[in-house]
Amino acid sequence: KEHKQMVEALKKGDEVVSGGGILGRITEVGDNFVQLEIAEGVQIRIQKQAISSLMPKGAYKGTL
Asked: Taking Cα atoms as reference points, which of 56, 61, 52, 50 lies closest to residue 2?
C-alpha cells in the first residue's frame, strides 16, 4: 500500500532507485512509465512499479 502511494506521487525532479538498483532523477512521468536520467545525457524509461524507493534530494549528484 505504501509503495503504491509512493509510485502515484512520483513527479519530475524526484530522485529514485529502481528495483534493479539504478539511481536516477525523473525527467518525465507518464501513466505507466517514467523517464530517468541516469548520467548526464543518458536517459532510460522504466515502469513506475519498478521504482523501489524515493531518495533524498542530492543523492543522484552526490558523492559515493
From this structure: 52
